Amino acid sequence: MTMNKAGRASLVMIMALLIGILAACSQTKENAAGSQTPDSNTPSAQASESAETQSPTKKEKVTLEFFSNTSGGTLEAYQRIVDKFNQENPDIFVELTPQSKDYEALMNAKMATNDLPDLWNTHGWSVHKYSEYLRPLNDQPWASKLVNEIKPIVTDSAGNVYVLPFDVDISGMLYNVKILQELNITVPETWEQFLAACEVIKNAGYTPIAIGGKDTGDVAGFLGRVAPSFLTQDASVEYKDELKDGSFDWSHFDEVSKFILQLRDKGYYNVDYLTADKQAVFKGFAENKVAFAFQANNSIFEVLKLNPDAQISMMRIPVNNGSPFLISGERDAIGIWKDTEHEEEALKFLTYMSQPENVSQIAEAYSIPAALTDVQVNLGDLEEVFSKFSDVPITNNFDREYLPNGMWNTLKVVGPGLLSGELNVENASRAMKTDYDRLRASAQ
User: Fold this and answer.
1) How far is CA 368 from the centre of its chain?
2) Helix or strand or coil: residue 326?
3) Which residues, in sequence order, are CB contacts of 327 under 8 Å at separation 6+?
4) Mean pLDDT on 44-58
5) Which terminus of the chain has a smaller tally of CB atoms within 10 A, N or C?
6) DSSP, residue by residue, 57-104
7) CA 180/CA 176 separation, integer angstroms
8) Radius of gyration (Cα) for the chain, nearest Å?
9) Which pLDDT tens digit goes with each residue over 166-211?
């Protein structure tokens, strides 16, 4: 259809009118919006901006993952301190996760994938095993307060400290003061004296030596205390250099195994030495039925919980030729993962843990001296013992000083294997050598 001039003119007028209406609507909307959001230079806009600046932003709560290999009274002490920290710091939550079973295997796996907790107990390996994964802590205020006994243990060759240590692990063996006094037995200093004492104790109806064989770590600790006496602390035969440089003849370990079996064959262990747990050992001491145990001082704390009147003390580990000795090392210490996303919060927690009252709680749970100079620890009767033994020979834990990382697990297999009869003397030495060579090679 053909539109004439008049029709075209009418259409143009209609379109113009529609455009005008749309423009007016748009302007109205803009004015309305402008009335709700004032210009940034107006007083109302400035007041609004000031209010937003002054209004605090709620901080998101940070969770710190803390792995611990502790148990018993020590774990309870940690939990009390962590609970108090969480109450006093509502923006941080420390999640204490006990991992006492297969802790080393778990940490090995986490190191392999570089997926570590924010904080963890280094169980004696802060330098040799974990240092490459830990944040150096030399810049922390407590770092200048380390006691002399712990400095070389937690410091690497470059002078870096990677953990907050709570205590110095000085221990030997435990003995029942009452039983030895009753039977007029002097605390043994040689294995010959020890064997003679065990015979008297057995004939008197007591258990000479208590072992919690259900816990393979208890048997590994037994081996770890006996081995230095035969291999590194005996003046007539010591193999410190050979153990460190890889040239050690593992047939010498036969003497350690023979001694362990000699004690078994003479009937000096508790009858359930393969199935008893540590609690049974504590109960034996608490009921005054057990004379000796190859355990650390924290066991004293557990015994006293069962019987506050029990008289349990620490003795040096006997040596056939030389001076009886004690074992020292890093016991309780916490490090921070160098790749943690919450470094500020982790440092705040570690500073809190370094307060004297908190360090004291951890050290007292193990009945050993504190690792910081400004901390007082109530060691009870052991105060006099530590003073008396201040100048005696001290060696680091056998596996940490002389064995490659990972051989604690070997001790946990070899020890029970010997006691159960699954391994003989020669097989035990062969198993030690195999893992020693393999782990040394993998570490190089």
Assistant:
1) 15
2) strand
3) 169, 170, 171, 172, 224, 225, 228, 317, 394, 395, 396, 397, 398
4) 47
5) N
6) PPPPPEEEEEEE---HHHHHHHHHHHHHHHHH-TTEEEEEEE--TTHH
7) 6
8) 34
9) 998 888 999 999 999 999 999 999 999 999 999 999 999 999 999 9
